[in-house]
Design a protein that fits this description.
Blueprint: E1 6-10, H1 16-27, H2 32-37, H3 39-48, E2 59-63, E3 66-76, E4 85-93, H4 102-117, E5 122-124, H5 131-139
Parallel strand pairs: 4-5
Antiparallel strand pairs: 1-2, 2-3, 3-4
């Protein structure tokens, strides 16, 4: 059996709706409100070249011209005392396309882009229940960092 080739390319604004649908399929939730505040802003600005640095870290994986996966990340320049580097916001692979190396290809594309741009650190913030994601990112070379995240749930 021949597996069709996967193409990784930078995300464009016309990919946003498909990526939203895949994200919702994977998580079962619609996170559009956070998309519209964060990710779509980077995608749309990158189309117009309005950012001082083109939007980095946003990629899609295509197989047979269909969305098979995505990776969303952004550069943080040390705001609020966070370490400088590339911060992964989300990685998703269509359930039917998993375990075929697509997620790894997306991370490798991010790593290559970081190396080209002189960005020497990649971070991802995960919840303890995201064990599958932790295992995957660890297999791609990410390891625990010295950052501590504190939180508190308020309300009922």
């Amino acid at each position: 059996m021949v597996v069709p080739k996967v193409t990784i390319r930078p995300m464009r604004s016309d990919d946003a709706d498909e990526v939203r649908r895949l994200d919702q399929l994977i998580l079962g939730d619609d996170r559009s409100s956070t998309w519209d505040q964060q990710v779509t802003r980077f995608i749309e600005l990158s189309d117009y070249g309005a950012l001082p640095h083109p939007s980095l870290g946003c990629f899609v994986a295509l197989r047979n011209n269909m969305l098979a996966g995505f990776l969303l990340a952004e550069v943080q320049a040390g705001e609020y005392g966070l370490p400088r580097g590339m911060w992964v916001v989300a990685v998703g692979v269509h359930p039917d396309e998993r375990r075929q190396g697509i997620g790894r290809m997306l991370v490798e594309q991010l790593q290559a882009q970081c190396a080209e741009r002189g960005i020497d650190s990649i971070y991802a913030v995960l919840r303890p229940e995201d064990a599958r994601d932790m295992t995957f990112l660890a297999s791609c070379g990410l390891s625990a960092s010295p950052i501590t995240v504190l939180g508190q749930h308020i309300g009922g």
